[in-house]
Amino acid sequence: MGNIFKDLAIKYHTGSLLIKLIFINIAVFLIVRLTGVVLTLSGTDINPLLSYLQLPSNLSILAWRPWTLLSYMFLQYDLLHILFNMLWLYWFGQLFLHFFSEKQMGGLYILGGLSGAGLYLLAYNLIPWFSSTYGVLLGSSAAVLAIVIATAVYAPDFKISLFFFGAVSLKYIALITVLLDAISITSQNAGGHIAHLGGAMLGFIFAYRWKQGKDITRFINTLIDKIVVLFKPRPKIKIKYRRPESDMEYRTRKQKETEDIDAILDKIKRSGYSALTTEEKKKLFDASKK
């Protein structure tokens, strides 16, 4: 069992950011689900715990749980939910890395999740149809969809093979995905579909601006780098203080150095320079520079 965790740790540390994002999502899923099993067996409900990780639609509650703007995009509780999200992330993440960098993927994942959260909060607090509804949002779908749409907008005619359909251009996959979310806004999972559209919108903006020579993920990546540096442990610098030599110690040391050099010179006279040891050659060389 120990070897399994060791292998997983090696794959995580040596893998690309895509692999790290998948590992993080799966790890959070397993931790939350196992915690749910333990709480259920002990007669406790998991929902109060989830409420501190899910994004609430109520702004007053959100004010006391601001971290949920980030935590929600790494949280999945249903097996099929995380399965489909991670498959989409893996497939399109690999394509994304053909055209963009790992840093851009990380920045876009975060910005896509935030964009999905922003549109979700606007809809639930401004659209009358949602005014009497309290919702919670969880899942990486908005962040993943930002990567999907960005890839499709940047390389719309790039084709991938799908079961039963054959080779299909990315632009059609993106279009169908967005349309399905748009017509599902009034469904039972309205909040999720709205967040998907927010992530898709951010992915479109990223690819469009990138074609114009602008990288909208730069500022978020700069911020992340500063935070990482702030919390990164700094190497300890050992400072050794040496007591100054006294006059007697100085004269003794200089006399010893002179005697050593004289002995080396005598050895050269007797046996030649090649008879010197490496240490003796170093001493002679150091003395010649003084």
TrEMBL record:
It is a multi-pass membrane protein. Keywords: Hydrolase, Membrane, Protease, Transmembrane, Transmembrane helix. Residues 247-290 form the DUF6576 domain. SUPFAM superfamilies: Rhomboid-like. It comes from the Bacteria. It is found in: Membrane. The chain crosses the membrane at residues 21-41, 79-100, 107-127, 133-155, 162-184, 190-208. This is Membrane associated rhomboid family serine protease. It comes from Coprobacter fastidiosus NSB1 = JCM 33896.
